[in-house]
């Protein structure tokens, strides 16, 4: 099942399977064979599905600055390493940032693994909720973001009163 919602970052498509969020996609949406869900169909649109409705509610509260931590069932699909990186991303607090190298070290690797962390970060299928936008370059600059640097800056600015 899936739903759509308008947001300050543009339209979002939110998908669930088995009562857990599996993807949030920024518009323009990718063709079916390229989306975060892989080759699986999204199924039917269901704006009233409880998990989807709650996700929309929490995202709206986040964009209104009334929510700083999400409480949703998540089921991102990825390798073991990607899963570990995505779990670590969820430990970066609202309004905080972390570098790729810091995440690598937290996972028990050297700073040299920062490129692998960056690749896993870029493949995060549930942006915003799994806050990959909070990861910045070693020199403090904004670096790549699957949703585009403009969106990354908007999300960080939302969380830090526009300091980015």
Q: Characterize the biggest β-sheet.
A: 3 strands, antiparallel
Total separate domains: 2
In order across it, which strands form the biggest sheet? 1-2-3
Order of helices and strands: EEEHHEHHEH
Cα-atom Rg, whole angstroms?
15 Å
CATH topology-level fold name of the largest domain: Arc Repressor Mutant, subunit A
What global shape is seen? globular
Please estimate the helix content. 25-40%
> What is the CATH architecture annotation of the largest domain?
Orthogonal Bundle
- Continuous helix count: 5
CATH domain class name of the largest domain: Mainly Alpha
β-strand number: 5
Instruction: Calculate the terminal CA-CA distance, rounded to whole Å.
Output: 35 Å
Average pLDDT over all residues:
90
Write down the oligomeric state. single chain
Alpha-beta classification? alpha+beta
Strand content: 5-15%
- The CATH homologous superfamily name of the largest domain equals Winged helix-like DNA-binding domain superfamily/Winged helix DNA-binding domain
Q: Are there runs of 5+ residues with pLDDT below 50, and where?
A: none
